[in-house]
Every structure is written in structure tokens, then in C-alpha cells.
């Protein structure tokens, strides 16, 4: 996991500017997502280091996974406490 964010708005391709619509088509995206904020972890947190390690999901299937508030807080806490993720 490289970070997290909060979605503000998801726009249909047909409502976008020509430039944004073409970018969506190049990426094979169905919608354009605008975020309220995005926070990147200092260093990626490996899924295998979290409670999600036993999940049947793999790779890209974690993208967009909805977490409970408790699960979200657990991952954030783990990312902040991990020696790999602390600033030197």
C-alpha cells in the first residue's frame, strides 16, 4: 500500500473536458475520480505485513477495497509504527 485518500467526486467520461476524456480512454478508465485529499506513505506498506495477508484477493484486486474505520485505523497505525516507514 502506498497511501490512501478520500474521494470527493467521480465524474462520468461524457461530462469531462476533451483532454480529460482522452486521458481516461488512454487509461481504460470508466470515470475520473477527484480526491478531497491524498496521503502517501513514506515507504510502501506491504500487504503481507498487514491483517490482509490471508485475504484471497491479490494484486490489483485490492484497489478500491472498502475497509471499516477500525481496519483503516489499524493499517495507519501499523504504517506509522513500522521502522521501515519512519523518517530517519
Secondary-structure blueprint:
Elements: E1 3-12, H1 18-26, E2 31-40, H2 69-81
Antiparallel strand pairs: 1-2
Structural notes for this entry:
With 88 residues, the chain is an alpha+beta fold. It folds into two domains: 1-40, no CATH class; 42-88, no CATH class. 25% of the residues lie in helices and 23% in strands. It contains two helices and two strands; from the N terminus they run E-H-E-H. The protein has helices at residues 18-26, 69-81, and strands at 3-12, 31-40. Strands 1-2 form a two-stranded antiparallel sheet. The longest helix has 13 residues, at 69-81. It is elongated and about 45 Å long. The two termini are 20 Å apart. The model has no long low-confidence stretch (mean pLDDT 83).
Low-confidence stretches: none
Which structural class is indicated by helix and strand composition? Answer: alpha+beta
Q: How many strand segments?
A: 2
What order do the strands of the largest sheet run in, or round the barrel if closed? 1-2
Q: Please estimate the helix content.
A: 25-40%
The count of domains is 2
Q: Mean pLDDT, nearest integer?
A: 83
